[in-house]
Automatic annotation (TrEMBL):
Single GO MF descriptor: 2-octaprenyl-6-methoxyphenol hydroxylase activity
KW Phosphoprotein (keyword) present: no
Domain FAD-binding intervals: 4-348
Classification via NCBIfam families: PRK05732.1, Ubi-OHases, UbiH
Cofactor(s) in the UniProt record: FAD
Family indicated by similarity: Belongs to the UbiH/COQ6 family.
Lyase recorded as keyword: no
Coiled coil start-end: none
Protein name per its UniProtKB record: 2-polyprenyl-6-methoxyphenol hydroxylase
Known pathway: Cofactor biosynthesis; ubiquinone biosynthesis
Length: 396
């Protein structure tokens, strides 16, 4: 039976980045890890669940992590820098502005479109001789034995691995088979996304605007367009999806205002239901969960993949250390050390996004007044504001 050092189930952002990060590791004798990546979806980027029409914001710190993993150089040409962030609340005066120059960084973050990023990551995986991409393929069953995991695929192929990483997203098969306890919260909202063209160029400006209709984010992206994420109740989101383009742009203009001038065109709209879904303990015998398989977040502060990337980078660092020390990379000590070290960051980000989602989606006058005071205080108090800015850049 073929043996792999690591099998990664799922090749979305988290799984693909992890595979490439691990492929670069070396044992003290110079040998590399053998890695299998199992992906259910065919490599068709017109309809890939992990690399769809979404654009996501990568924090400044995520750029640093991607550099350490050796992946930034090929991503950089696909990334639009965010040089200015404005946070505001519709109908109130409170407002916070942050610029990259204030914090002496070239950008507060970057926006990337998932489809071209996915194409690039798949090309890179194909170039690595120690990555075997099995796609489309699915695990039929896996058995955790003391010294390895034995996996059987739907087509009957069987192999073993020292470590299985579940990067198979929020409906993780690995997680379901193990019946891992989860914390779930339905936000009662959907995110409507679209790429929008405006009369004024974005000039690197990102906007987060809280409105009675729900939070609206417009992020600078390629070809002068802005990537919209509009979180709204299910009914409102359904109604937004049903509008024709002109009526949709008019509704958006009403809520967002003229910060980008007139909104002139919108691309196709897509809708995502928003829930929090978090595994209580994302590690198990010879197995860890990363990315959305471990925690699905509200997109309000653009934290989902940034958190997943910190998981991936920390796991790669833990395995690098285990190889250097001659330890078994799937051992309980290595995996629980990794898992425990990640828990405070995961808990903080789940708490932050949930608090923001609840606070900024409410139209209750007391909460609206509190928000407004908060934004005003932040604008007036440099240390509050810089905490927010460093958080936006992914530093804690
Ligand atoms: C509207 C919206 C806006 C967002 N904005 C941001 C942002 O600005 N910044 C940010 O950091 N994050 C953002 N996110 C979150 C970010 O998109 C996700 O965190 C990230 O894409 C998740 O990647 P993943 O690889 O963990 O999971 P997924 O993308 O779910 O990938 C899982 C992969 O596993 C595969 N798979 C599933 N089941 C199986 C199986 N049984 N066998 C094999 N393969 C399987 C799937 O086909 C898929 O390729 C946003 C999310 C949404 C919805």
């Amino acid at each position: 039976m073929t043996h792999f050092d690591v099998v990664i189930n799922g090749a979305g952002m988290a799984g693909a980045v992890l595979a490439l990060g691990l492929a670069a590791l070396r044992r003290p004798d110079g040998s590399s890890l053998s890695i299998a990546v199992i992906e259910a979806a065919p490599p068709d980027f017109d309809a890939h669940p992990g690399f769809d029409a979404r654009s996501i914001a990568l924090a400044w710190h995520s750029r640093e992590l991607l550099e350490q993993l050796g992946l930034w150089a090929r991503l950089a040409p696909l990334a639009t820098p965010i040089t200015h962030i404005q946070v505001s609340d519709r109908g109130h005066f409170g407002r916070v502005e942050m610029t990259a120059s204030e914090y002496r960084v070239p950008a507060l973050g970057y926006v990337v479109e998932l489809t071209p990023v996915g194409q690039g990551l798949y090309r890179q995986m194909a170039e690595r001789p120690n990555i075997r991409l099995l796609c489309p393929a699915r695990i039929k069953e896996f058995v955790q034995q003391p010294d390895n995991i034995v996996l059987t695929l739907d087509d009957g192929a069987a192999f073993s691995a020292a470590l299985l990483v579940a990067a198979d997203g929020n409906r993780s098969l690995v997680r379901r088979q193990l019946r891992l306890p989860c914390r779930q919260l339905d936000y009662g909202q959907c995110a409507v996304i679209a790429n929008v063209e405006s009369a004024e160029p974005h000039r690197g400006r990102a906007f987060e605007r809280f409105t009675p209709e729900g939070p609206i984010a417009l992020l600078p992206m390629s070809q002068g367009r802005s990537s919209l994420v509009w979180c709204a109740s299910h009914e409102r989101a359904k109604a937004l999806m049903a509008l024709d383009d002109a009526a949709f742009l008019a509704a958006l203009q009403r809520e967002f205002g003229y910060r980008l001038g007139r909104l002139v065109r919108t691309g196709e709209r897509h809708r995502y239901p928003l829930v929090l879904d978090e595994v209580e303990r994302p590690w198990h015998h010879r197995l860890v969960l990363v990315g959305n398989a471990a925690h699905l977040l509200h997109p309000i502060a653009g934290q989902g993949f940034n958190l997943g990337l910190r998981d991936v980078a920390a796991l790669a660092a833990a395995l690098r250390q285990a190889l250097a020390d001659g330890r078994d990379i799937g051992s309980h000590g290595v995996l629980s050390g990794y898992g425990r070290a990640r828990q405070p960051d995961q808990a903080a980000i789940v708490g932050l996004t949930t608090a923001l989602a609840l606070l900024f989606s409410s139209d209750h006058p007391a909460l609206a007044a509190g928000r407004n005071l908060g934004l005003t205080a932040m604008a007036a108090c440099p240390s509050f504001k810089s905490q927010l800015a460093w958080r936006a850049m992914g530093k804690r």
